[in-house]
């Protein structure tokens, strides 16, 4: 049947690319250690440095190590997304991407497979960090855990799709790192991960409010600390919209690059 054949033309190549991303990442043990160890060290060093000099939450009961915990989790997701999407540039240099582009494979399958592969890895890495939750007085129930998994998945999907869109037209990992340092790291810094929106200056507060990653940090904070103000519903809706826009951007970038797939 035409419908079944069309689905197979998308799903089977997408699954193959997804599996390749997962296997490839976990074979590179230095990257696996790096994307987890760096944020953990950052979280412990910064959190312990501020210690009790920073107070947040109801009645100022939350110290900085607890406040920074969702931001450190997002950092792990961001780092994993960055490292996995560097494979787009590596695949182009090795000729693998060219062979995929000339094969009878839908371009939507390329975007879906690569992005879902990076999303899976980012989500797993982020969930691993939850083992430290009891250290910051976080005890997660079943329903909250499901919502946290959904939130991390949406953040991972959006950041991976954004990383894919940035990496696709590039031929150099150095250029990719430059864009990451210029764009994605500030996106994390202005997400409320390091300091609350309420205490920022007016112009910085405005930037943080239009930053979609802010709503990912807020959703995680509200789920991890139920006493926090607000509900994760609006934040999750914003994350869904952000994810769809980033995936659409990745699809547009693939189709724009149709005449020159390799350097």
Number of helices: 11
| Overall tally of domains | 1
- Poorly predicted regions are 1-5, 257-263
DSSP summary, beta strand count: 0
Secondary structure blueprint with pairings:
Layout: H1 2-27, H2 29-50, H3 64-67, H4 69-94, H5 96-102, H6 107-128, H7 142-167, H8 173-189, H9 202-210, H10 212-224, H11 232-256
Helix pairs in contact: 1-6, 2-4, 4-6, 4-7, 4-8, 4-10, 6-7, 6-11, 7-10, 7-11, 10-11
Task: Describe the structure in brief.
The protein is mostly helical and 263 residues long.
Walk me through the structure:
The structure is a single chain. The chain has 263 residues and is mostly helical. The chain has one domain. Helix content is 75%, strand content 0%. The protein has eleven helices and no strands. Helix 4 runs parallel beside helix 7 and helix 10 runs antiparallel to helix 11. The longest helix is centred in the N-terminal third of the chain and has 26 residues. The protein is elongated, with a radius of gyration of 19 Å. The N terminus and C terminus are likely disordered.
List keywords for this structure.
disordered N terminus
